[in-house]
Amino acid sequence: MTDDIDQVLITALMEDSRRSLKALAQISGLSSPSVAERLRRLEERGVLKGYTVEIDPKCFGYQLQAIVRIRPLPGQLHEVERQIMAIPEFTECDKVTGDDCFIARLHVRSMEQLDTLLDRLNTHAETNTAIVKKTPVKRRLPPMA
Q1: With contact defined as beta carbons under 8 Å apart, do 105 and 92 qualify?
Q2: Contact 64, 26 (CB under 8 A)
Q3: 3-state secondary structure at position 18
Q4: pLDDT tens for each residue of 94-111
């Protein structure tokens, strides 16, 4: 479990994972060594799994983002999963229950690239694609309390 101070630290890191120990100490009311110890314990317990940077794929020419529902053909589940993992433009993928086995996020530079990548899957799976127009809720934590 986490306490209120842990939650303050986690929230501060979610807002800016580059915050210094000194800044985290000021936010939490602890000393820098105490913050360092708390972060170490949170890491050891697996609460904090890493620190990351957020980039804008558009800066690298990825103009389109798509959500792809993927339903493998009979006997093709493992091959489809292998192919998804091998295509770096798939930036997220969840294996789910229901009619579709996978729901994946894909970043592409053009509609032509989207077609080419999906064609690689179409011999092993049926796909249903939606183009993302806007992301009103970015990835975030559920309530911690």
Answers
A1: yes
A2: no
A3: coil
A4: 999 999 999 999 999 999
What 3-state DSSP class applies to 122? helix
| Domains of the chain and CATH, by start | 4-44 (1.10.10.10), 57-131 (3.30.70.920)
Distance CA 107, CA 105 (A): 7
Task: Answer yes or no: pTM beyond 0.85.
Answer: no
Determine the pLDDT at residue 1.
Answer: 79
**What does the pLDDT look like over 15-37, one tens digit per residue?**
899 999 999 999 999 999 999 99
Q: What count of Cα atoms within 13 Å lies in the side-chain half-sphere of residue 28?
A: 27
- Please provide residue 144's backbone torsions phi and psi, each rounded to the nearest 5 degrees: -90, -15
Cβ neighbourhood burial of 76 (10 Å; 0-12, 13-18, 19+): middle
- CA–CA distance, 142 with 93 (Å, rounded to integer): 19
